[in-house]
Amino acid sequence: MTAEAVQLHVGEGATARSRLAQLRTRLAGRLNLGLYAKITRYGLCRDLALPIEKPNAKIAILVRPLENRDLSSLFRNDIAKNDLTERLEVAWRLAFIDKGARRGFVAIDSGSETPCYVQWLFSSRDNDFIQKLGGFPALEAHEALLENAYTPPSYRGLGIMSAAMAVIAERATEFRARQVLTFVGEQNIASLKGCQRAGFHPHILHYRNSFCFGTIRRDRFEKLPDGDPRRTAKF
């Protein structure tokens, strides 16, 4: 059963207690935004027509579509219970799934057959869903969006993100996309470097102003022109 053929729901197997914990975590994240917050993200792009040298992870991995059975391994209830940032990372992904996100992909640790990375791929046909999420430009017919990457803590630092992204991005050719976008906060240098190793380079700047604990948001996207030195910046 593939992620394309099945819609994944957080509610399956979830207890009322875990749902309440997720809600509390998301509320804490909202409160952390405060009355006003300003965020800048890079929109990076990979041109699928250009060959790249695919990076290798430090462990052997296999990339395949996300399945329901992968969720318990990826988002364990005992992950960093006292770490709000980590709890938010998990809560955001679970909420994302619950909203109906589809076409997810996972990297599997070939040694233990454990899911060790997840990310979702969208086409222009998903624009309605993307716009409901907010924070992303509408995709053109030749574009795809690769988003919401997550690596469980025990698998970080192994180069899995770069290796998996390089493979997942190429699945966009199945719906005739020629370019794949992904968005990363300007302060997240580790992820920006990982995206560059996977063949992505700065293409757009996303500016967000949020007010009243994130309940009001204003987004602006600036496409970097050809020749702009930021397009070839190394992180």
Query: In what order do the strands lie side by side in the largest sheet?
Result: 2-3-4-5-6-1-7-8
| Beginning-to-end CA distance, first to last residue | 38 Å
Mean of all residue-level pLDDT scores: 87
The CATH topology is given as Aminopeptidase
State the CATH architecture. 3-Layer(aba) Sandwich
The dominant shape is globular
**Describe the biggest sheet?**
8 strands, mixed
Report helical residue fraction. Answer: 25-40%
pLDDT under 50 segments (min length 5)?
Answer: 1-14
Order of helices and strands: HEEHHEEHEHEHEE
CATH class: Alpha Beta
Tell me the structural class: alpha+beta
The value of Rg in angstroms is 17 Å
How many distinct helices?
6
- The CATH homologous superfamily is termed Gcn5-related N-acetyltransferase (GNAT)
Number of domains as seen in the coordinates: 1
Number of strands: 8
Instruction: Give the percentage of residues in beta strands.
Output: 25-35%
Describe this structure in words.
By secondary structure, the protein is an alpha+beta fold. The chain has one domain: Aminopeptidase. The chain has helices at residues 16-33, 71-74, 84-98, 127-133, 160-169, 189-197, and strands spanning 36-47, 61-65, 104-109, 114-123, 143-150, 179-185, 201-211, 216-223. An 8-stranded mixed beta sheet has the order 2-3-4-5-6-1-7-8. β3 (104-109) and β4 form a beta hairpin. α5 (160-169) crosses α6. The longest helix has 18 residues, at 16-33. The radius of gyration is 17 Å and the shape is globular. The protein starts with 15 loop residues before the first helix and ends in a 12-residue tail after the last strand.
